[in-house]
Amino acid sequence: MTQEIRTLSRQIHNRSVILMAALSMAVAVLLFSPWSPAYAADSDRSRIIVSGASGQVGSMVVEELLSRGVPPQDLILVSRTPDELSRYAQLGAATRFGDFTQPESLPAAYEGGERLLLISISAGPDNRPQLHKNAIDAAVQVGVRHIVYTSTVDAENMDEAAQSAAMHRETETILRNSGVAWTILRNQLYADGIVGQAARMLAAGQVVVQPDEIPTAFVTREDCAAAAAGALIMPGHENMIYNITGPTAVLRSDIARIASQITGRPIELIQGAGGEPQAAGAIAGFNSFDVTSNAVELLAGRPATSVEQLLESNREALMEAVRNQ
Question: Count of H helices and E strands in the chain?
């Protein structure tokens, strides 16, 4: 009798293992399939347009979309230099010429797309809102249903003296009045320059800190790209505004402290004026750099990269600065 019970127990255990394996496989298929909720925001397979696809952020967005299961055939990649997108064309993506300064080129560039990532012009002509409007008008003309726009952090609260903030506010207004669904991603200052800044602190062994410095929640371009991809492929973000920031606002003294901890090289803090321009003081009217949010985690499905993580991942570059002092 005891042997029969043991045999029955083993059979039940084996069936449980098989069932759990089947469930795990089903979950994996659901999570990683292009038809999973992470990709299929609608019941149909919407084609996604990425403007500026050959630029720094644009190319990162394309890679992020592909890594999250979007088939290349569902991508329309637009650039002033579409030849630079040949690798994606070979995968099956549509690569097209489009230039905001040539509005007649845009309807054909956007034709067939339902969602558009409109990466803002970061610098250049004073008529940037009009150039962005050219893109928005063309997208509406060909039936695009949702536009995701990259703006600047806390744009409505920035001082009127901040010209780029005013430009973004005007574009945001144009987009909200366009009649299509929209999502506005207000990106914080990029963190890319922090590694070089930390290396210079280490090489000098000191840094000038200022008592009126405003902390900044720097964000990596990779995190901005991941957030943009999430806004494009996940439902529920229409007609929403997100500040895309790092997890914590930091001062120059924080960067020095972290760099020192990673390398073991002491960095002296010198109080007073001088040294590299502080992030907040370098641009007139920017008073919202300490804004933080969890939007990267919400849209990308992972926490935003901290300054500690960024500098640690560039440990060798920091150590090289110490060795060359």
Answer: 12, 9
